[in-house]
Amino acid sequence: MENLIALLVGAPLLGAAVLLCGGRRLDRTGHWIGTLLAAVSFAIGLALFADMLGKGAEERALYQRLFTWIPVEGFQADIAFQLDQLSMTFVLLISGVGTLIHVYSIGYMEHDERRRRFFGYLNLFVAAMLLLVLADNYLLLYFGWEGVGLASYLLIGFWQHKPSAATAAKKAFLVNRVGDIGLSIAIMIMFTTFGTFAFGPVLEASGQASQGTLTAIGLMLLLAACGKSAQVPLQSWLGDAMEGPTPVSALIHAATMVTAGVYLIVRSADIFNAAPDAQLVVTIVGAVTLLFGAIVGCAKDDIKKALAGSTMSQIGYMILAAGLGPIGYVFAIMHLVTHGFFKAGLFLGAGSVMHGMNDEVDMRKYGGLRTYMPVTFVTFGLGYLAIIGFPGLSGFFSKDKIIEAAFAKGGAEGWILGAVTLLGAAITAYYMTRVMLMTFFGEKRWQPDADGNPPHPHESPRSMVIPMVLLAVGSVAGGAVFEFAGFVEWLEPVTGYEHGHPPIGAAAVTACTVAVMVIGVGLAYLQYGRRPVPAVAPRGSLLTRAARRDLLQDDFNHAVFVTGGTHLTRSLVYVDHSLVDGVVNGTAASVGGLSGRLRKLQNGYARSYAVSMFGGTAVLIAATLLMRAV
Amino acid sequence: MNPVNYLYLSALLFTIGAAGVLIRRNAIVVFMCVELMLNACNLAFVTFSRMHGNLDGQIVAFFTMVVAAAEVVVGLAIIVSVFRARHSASVDDASLMKL
What we know:
The complex is a heterodimer. Chain A is mainly α. Chain A is 73% helix and 3% strand. Chain A has 24 helices and 2 strands. Chain A has a two-stranded antiparallel ribbon with strand order 1-2. The longest helix of chain A has 47 residues, at 553-599. Chain B is mainly alpha-helical. Chain B starts with a helix and ends in a 13-residue tail after the last helix. Chain B has 3 helices and no strands. The chains are: A mainly alpha, B mainly alpha. The interface between A and B is small, with 10 and 13 residues. Chain B: It is found in: Cell membrane; Membrane. Chain B: NDH-1 is composed of 14 different subunits. Subunits NuoA, H, J, K, L, M, N constitute the membrane sector of the complex. Chain B: It catalyses: a quinone + NADH + 5 H(+)(in) = a quinol + NAD(+) + 4 H(+)(out).
């Protein structure tokens, strides 16, 4: 069975190669090829999953070594795969949701003349993401990590004729690069400390390294995770990344790629377990981002940007859970998977709404769409109930577990983290209800688009509706399946698990979670359900205005990094011009001046030459005599 | 007679020659002063040969005389041709070799 692992990556990679090199003759069939190869990958994943389920918990991990990538004395990098329960979970999520989104894109991108290229990029993304989760060493993981970054760049900037999309793609690439530096430094420290970067040896030996080294590795891995998963302080790219086509937002910037940071932390669990300081920073980053994303999500009128804020916030939950150690790893992954379902579903719903509304994204120009787009309404509604944690749906189970684990951390830390997660749950309920009410309820606030065409909302074609329905089913049932089919036992051999006991009792935590959810929904209903929504955004409070500008993240980056960088380069240029060039030019000028003066000695008079000859000889003789006397 | 006196004479002749080279402008006189310096050296060589009791210095003096004779042939020829071209034997007039 292990020989199939390479095919998981190989199928979409083949698709990308064929679609990107195939040229125009594949324009009519390209999308089918892309979808088929993604589905092949999913089918292989299912076969491996069935095989894995048939084995005992300890024998489930599979390994496949293809070839040695960089054979150098004392440094060996292999192309080798490791498929354990954690990787399996990701493989099914990536290839499953990926296939659904391929299907959705067939309809969504129907009128785009570059659809073949779009599917090529999507396949490239799936291949790189699978490589990332299947790698058995950090260097190959890094390769996949860069691969998804490339695919993300290409897809955000897919409509490159729009300057905003091209800029957003560049921004995402640059911010990610900051995180990538963290990952590369972490790998270098690992190699110098352990002499290898394969998961097995590094994680086994992690207990022997010094505390400082482990903390450094942990913090660098966290920096990498912050870049890829849009966590504070590297969160600024995710909102702009919504310039990409909606299927891309659903697959890459909600369900899979942005969760790579969570995967990285959970995969490196042994390192973080041995470095409590790094773990603490991880929980702080998670908690801050959780609130940050939620607050931004409350203020955005662009439906996709509101969902992007929500993604940031939900990934904050996962990172926080991953920072809690063995009591949280499993729930981080569980929330990751359920989030993959409901957030992909929500984005596809948003895409469907945009499809029917002439690509309008401003929720203030929606309203009353539930009767015009019934299927979108129902699937979006189920995703909505799942994300706010409505009892029985998937988000309820996974989020509730994280809140419990946060409380179970113990001490003041536990109370603070628990309170933050509860507050986050309330805000989540608030902003999602706001999105729901502004889009599907209330009176119609539709406005004609730039060409003067009034919108004619209609249900989307079947290729778009089916993936939405399937994801809605996943959003409804996912949590219960994980809860009762033993997700904890499934992941425990890889990540470790320790049951946490919250100080106020699990039932009380659940009651609180439901209570804050009801409060959040109620507040949003009072504000957006009872009163008509103004078509032009009101000025709002200071916080609202800051949140509309992403809590001034871009202004901060501009003030600190852009302006600071400009001043730094200017001062360096000044030093270069005045000091470095000064030394060089000064030497040249003084040599030139000196030789100009020496040239005057060359006056053509034979007698003056004779003087210098006599003078020189006299000096030589005098020197000789002097030396002899001494 | 003390041979050191010959050395004093030699130094005196050399100095006169050198001063003549530096001071006089007429190429012929400068040339003669050069010859004076050469012969002052010859005198010193011969004196040292006598003082040290071997013949090396005298042999060198012969060489110097041969070279000086050859030099006079070439040098006078150059001075004559310069005089024919420029109607002047002043060394200061021939100062074209400069930047």
